[in-house]
Give the backbone structure.
Amino acid sequence: MDYKVFRKSVKGKSGKTVRRWYYHWTDSAGIQHQKICKGCRNRSEADDFVRTIPGLPKPAATPPGEATVAQIAEYMYIPGSAHVSRRIQLGKSAELETMVECRRYAKVIIDLWGNMRLQDLGVDHVMPYLFNAQKSGKWKNRFLDVLGELYSEAAWYKCRIVKPAFSRFAAGTKKADIFSTAELDRLFQPANFPDEVFYLFFLLSLSGGLRLGEARGVRARQFIFDRKVFIIDGFCKTDGSRTNYNKKGSPENPKFRVVYLPDITLDKMDVWIKKNELQGDDFCFTLNGRPIRKETAEKAFYSALQSAGLVPRPEPAKRNKWGEGRKKQCRIKLNPPDGRKLVPHSLRYTYVSRMRRELTAPELQPMTGHTDEGMVDYYNRKTLDLALAALPERGKAAADSLFL
């Protein structure tokens, strides 16, 4: 069946006109049909979607060892494909965002070397391309990860080829710096933040060593006030949907963790939850009824840094002789004059550094998530008791000294 994708304007549930992706085909009677490409945000996702429709052609049969790069990569990372089914059974991510990201890299690989037999593709082809690509080290390493999976997939095409030893690239990204006690005192003044919700959002981020997505996804049930602990059991993705597992985890292996919180944070969150009458699954930090967007949180954080005098305020837009402002605004300088990198993730770095003063690395690892051992769902009361029992008693004193 020959499916064609297209975009058209339709009325959404709110009554507003939105643009959505559809596909159409003509049946044997010459009648044209059309359906929506569910969850697709661009043409690339729509093209991949129609490839998963029942009736998807099987990969072409090739003589052993003769499959080309394009033939092997053609159906990789396509939802509903045999490749993705194998990924799921192997415990690898099959999230749509991950599939879309990996598919982009796969398409680049196909464009570059699609007509080559995989056994002919070597270091002398791949590394010169990456050396000359104007991309970050992180991008290049991700490219190599997807390319490496191509060699694993090749076995299903009777191509048993040993993957060449591709060298990895330096990440090239400066790590976030930590805050001093004096800087924390200056920063965590309610007046520095646009709203109380952002003040509590970042106070909790520091107090529990949360990643930004974890803070965005905080729900009322995660606090166990009588035990003075907080359970990290998921995070909000870019689109606002919430997972039931932590970073590097999966629904089968969630990697939950439990941390102590300082009394000052527990008290403020208790008041906040009661004041807003939040129930178990209610999000604690919302704007217009939805979890705070990543970009909105970052903007509020940088505004607080500027209000606290920790980073310079942006230079005002220059005006011409007629008093008109420039269309392109000056780039906001987010870093202090000494070149340090202060970003929302700096709060997590600060948490780890300060807790490390009181706890050993093995004691701290389960609280930060820097371990390969995951916890099971905290709704299992027996497992929660085990997690609580595993918390070192000295951790409470360490949490209370977080701001000292």
